[in-house]
Design brief:
alpha/beta; disordered N terminus; globular; 8 strands
Length: 204
């Protein structure tokens, strides 16, 4: 996940420095075959069956981008950390993928439009999620979809965005909104979790 404003919880994080150990987290690097397969199964269900153009915002080191690319999707990844982008480029070298340094809230993609906008653990860090979602909706082609993986992490001082708040933001923007709980699948995280984790698939 990347940060975008000094007003936000992730803003003080040096993501270039974090890139050194970022993939050590089971759900970041997907190095464990069980964790990788768990994410692959979910992502395959969230993405179109046919080859599509996927915009991966806050792509980090490109682990989800790699899964999408392996199924024939054309991926454009965006992250604010140049080091994360370098690692993603190396991870997907030779594949139909482009990685750009930029702000997830306003990705530097010009007039290009996409079939899927994929974003994991980033929206909650942005200063105005409702405005960002309106902008992201405009980046989709007709028939496109938003795939947003979010949550509320921690129990003492929780941070994140609850599913009901996110779906409320999406209701004016999407005709079809589906929430898929993820907390109960320990394979996704490499351990049991007790906080709220979920995916929202929204189609305008």
């Amino acid at each position: 996940m990347t940060s975008n404003s000094d007003m936000n919880p992730g803003a003080g994080v040096d993501w270039d420095a974090e890139s050194v150990t970022f993939d050590d987290e089971p759900d970041h690097g997907l190095r464990d075959p069980v964790v990788r397969e768990a994410w692959a199964t979910r992502l395959r269900a969230w993405l179109p069956e046919r080859a599509a153009d996927v915009l991966d915002l806050g792509c980090g080191t490109g682990s989800l981008s790699l899964l999408a690319s392996e199924w024939g999707h054309r991926v454009t990844g965006v992250d604010r950390s140049p080091r994360m982008v370098d690692l993603a480029r190396a991870k997907l070298a030779g594949r139909d993928a482009v990685f750009l340094v930029g702000d997830a809230a306003a990705p530097p993609i010009g007039e290009q439009r996409f079939d899927v906008l994929l974003c994991r653990h980033v929206l909650w860090t942005l200063p105005d999620p409702e405005r960002v979602l309106r902008h992201w909706r405009g980046l989709l082609r007709p028939g496109g979809r938003l795939v947003l993986v979010e949550g509320v992490w921690g129990t003492v001082s929780p941070v994140g965005i609850p599913a009901d708040r996110l779906t409320a933001f999406l209701k004016p923007l999407a005709a079809d909104i589906r929430v898929e709980p993820l907390s109960d699948d320990a394979r996704l995280w490499g351990r049991e979790v007790e906080d709220e984790r979920y995916a929202v698939i929204a189609a305008p």
